[in-house]
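pinging the channel bc i need a second pair of eyes. not urgent but kinda urgent?? the chain im working w is below, pasted from the shared doc
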Amino acid sequence: MRIAFASFRYFPYGGLEKDMLRMAECAAKRGHDVTVISGSWEDDSIPDIPGLDVEVLKVPGWSNHTRADNFCRRINELFRQRDFDCTIGFNRIPGCDFYFAADNCYAVEMPKKHSRSVLKIFPRYRTYLALEERVFRPGAGTKIFYIAERQKSDYISCYGTEEERFILLPPGMNPACRLLDDAESVRKEKRRELGVADGDFLLLLLGSNFRQKGGDRAIRAVAGLTPELKKRTKLILAGADTPDFCRKIAEKYAVADKVIFPGARKDVPELLTASDILLLPARNESAGSTIVEAISCGVPVICSAECGFAPYASSACGKVLSEPWSDELFSRAVEEIAENYTERKAHAVAHARTVDFTRRADEAVDALENFVRTKDAK
């Protein structure tokens, strides 16, 4: 089977891109010929996996939305030339057999930030909304992998998409985030590397967009802790984002000495193992893979109800906070877990031994194979 995976941009620290590579690798290991086609490849290396090729399809355009529109045209021309058995888009690319919906519905989210007139006037918003409409409109045919129930209901409500086109995928995560046998030694070594003392209470937030992920909320939560807990608390904001915005917030609330910005990291399993709580107070998060990664690592989680995977945090003895947002309640949630940390940690570790969040890629490739078998049988 010849499969094409398409995305506007490959960025090594994005959850979407990690999902794409895990699915592509899974398909290649099953013996399929896999081609990953991207408008740009922002990584120093390309996966060395038999059966998996990477191509960069450069397209013209001075703006992201222009390049995205041109990429959609060029990739469909390439699909027709290559005659792939199956195609899957990881952005809103009309014409693909499948679309992996990593983000929430634009038609729902954009009006929360911009007026209707702005959405109509500016080419950026018009382009992205038009691409989404072409993927989800009735009769388009593209099958949709979705990861949270809210996504499905929003798309059907906005576009009238046929329900039978939706395929629910389970949570996906880096398999290396499973609970480590040598967790205690990894924890000590990583904390030493980060300059975090054994007695410090370490909070972790991971993400490539600190504002969207709620980095400022996490900083204010630290500022609102009781003096005793604040004294021994550290917060790591790790991700490929400029820290300027969050650094100013930390300075404003006099906790700059409590916040560490280590940049983008590839040692996520070790960072989780070194941490006491994962924070994801996101303003908008379709899923939140770091939630299930932390749960699998035996780390308690505090997240916002905006995260698609928030129910998993609740079932693992974590805390879920709803809008309207309260910094005070966030601080109290941290304190509650800290006060009963031994019990909470034991529950989290026990729960970690019962869950498996690594089936997403396999189930996605199962669906691709079934699609081709059904198509060939006609």
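so The chain has two domains: 2-170+359-377, 175-352. and The chain has a mean pLDDT of 94. — does that match what u expected or am i reading it wrong
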